[in-house]
Amino acid sequence: MTEAQKLQDEIQKKAMDKLAPLFNRYQLSLDYLEPALKWKSMVLILGNFSSGKSTLINEIFETDIQRTGQSPTDDSFTILTGPEKGAEPRELPGSSLINDERLPFTAFKKYGEQFVAHFAMKQFESPHLEDLAIIDSPGMLDAITEKDRGYDYNAVIGELARLADLVVLMFDPHKAGTIREVYETIRNTLPGNSGEDRIVFVMSRIDECDNPGDLIRSYGTLCWNLSQMTGRKDIPRIFLTYSPTLARAPESMAAWANERAELKERILAAPKLRVNHILQHIDKQAHELRMVAETLASFSLRGRQLLRKTGRLAIITGLFLFLFLDIIIREFTGLPETTLISSLLAGRVGWADLLIPTLGAGGALTLFSLFFSRFQFIGLQKRAAGRPEELIELDTEYRRQLWRQVAPHVELLLKEAGPREIFASHQGNLRKIDRFIDAELQDYYRRIS
Ligand SMILES: Nc1nc2c(ncn2[C@@H]2O[C@H](COP(=O)(O)OP(=O)(O)O)[C@@H](O)[C@H]2O)c(=O)[nH]1
Ligand SMILES: [Mg+2]
Predict the structure, then answer these.
(1) Which atom belonging to ligand 1 lies closest to the Cα atom of 48?
(2) Atom of ligand 1 nearest to the CA of 242
(3) Whole-prediction pTM value?
(4) CATH, range 40-268
(5) Distance 50 CA to ligand 2 centre (A)
(6) Where do the domains of the chain lie?
(7) Ligand 1 in contact with 52 (CB < 6 A)?
(8) Residues of the chain whose pLDDT is less than 50?
C-alpha cells in the first residue's frame, strides 16, 4: 500500500467512526458518504459522440480496447481499469458492478435495467490502472431524449461526476456549437457536485480544422458556449488536442503537440487528487450534517424557551393552589375543617391537610404540561416545519447552498419531532461535529498540502 492509500484508509475510517453515528442520529443516509470513499481514483470522460473520447483513451493506455468510429459506435458507460491483484483481466457486466459492495456503484441500481444493460467494466493490464479507472461514456446527442435512452442520462452523469476525481469534457471543432446536452449536464449537475477545478475542458480533433482561421473560429464559439454554460466571464483553460496518429498533416500541428501530452499527464495524475477530493467530500457532508444539527439545536432552544415560560406560570399557579385551594374551597363549602396554613400556624400538620393542596398543585402541573405538549409544542413545530429557514442564519452563499441540500430533510425531521426533542443534546452533537471539522479534518488538509 502506498502512503497515499494508507492516508486515504485512515481518513475513511476516521470519518466513518466520527460521522456515521451522527448521520444515524439525524437520519441522514450514508449513501453519499460511503461510495465516494470507496475504491480507486476515477476519471470520467464526457463529450459529444465522436469527439474522440475512445481514441484518447486507447492512446493514453496504448491499447485498442475501445472501439472508435465516426458514427455513434458505443452507447455504454465503460469502466476501464486494471485487474485485481494476481487475477486475470476480466469483463464484467453492469449487473455484477451494481451488486459488488466493494465498488462504489451499488446506488446505480436505481437507474434501472436499461442503464445496467449499458454499463460494463473492461479490465486490462496497464501500470497506470492499478489505482486508476477511466470511464468512457456514450456520446451526448441533442436528438436523444431520456425516453430514447430508457434511463436518466443526466442523473447518471451527475452521480459519476461526483465520484470522479477528474471530469474531462471533450468537444470537437465540428460540433463546438451544438452542445446543449453538455450545457444542461454542467449546469444542473456538475457545479453543485464537483468543484470547477475538477473539470478539464478539451477541444479535440483540431487537426481537422482547414486553417488557423477555422481553428480560431471554433475555439471562439466554444469559449462563448462555455461562458454561457458556466455563467462565468473568465474562460477556463481549454486543451487543444489532436491524435498524432490520425492527424492529416501532423507537421503543421507542431504548435499544439504538447497539449496532448499535458492532458495525458493531468489524467494520469488523477490519483493524486483522490485524497483531496475525499477530504472535500467529507468536508461538505460534515457541513451538511452540521447544518441539520444546527437547525434542530435552534428548534430545541426555542422549545425550551417556550417551556420555561409555561413552566414558570405552572409553578406559580401550582404553588398558589397548594397554599390556598383548601381555603377557597372552605369559603364555598365550609370544608375542610382545618386548612394547610391554619395547621402550619398551629404547628400541627396532618396528612389530611396535604390532600387538597397536593391535588391542586398536581392538577395544575398536569394541565399545564398537557397544554404545552398538545398545543404550544405542536404550534411551534408547525411554524418551524413551515419555515425551517428561519431557525438559522443563511448569511453566506455557501450556507445557502448547504441549506438547499438539507432543507427537505430538516423539514421531515421537524415534522416527526416529539416534545422530547427539545431535551436532546444537539449542542453536544454540534460540538462533536465542529471538533471533527476544525481539528481532525484540518489536520488532514495540512498533512496532504
Ligand atoms: N483526424 C482526427 N480524427 C480523430 C481524432 N480523434 C478521433 N478521430 C476519429 O474520430 C472518430 C471518432 O472517434 P472516437 O474516439 O470513436 O470518438 P468517441 O465517440 O468520442 O469515442 C474516429 O473515426 C476517430 O478515428 C483526431 O484527433 N484527429
Ligand atoms: Mg467512444
Answers:
(1) 20
(2) 27
(3) 0.75
(4) 3.40.50.300
(5) 6
(6) 40-268, 287-448
(7) yes
(8) 191-194
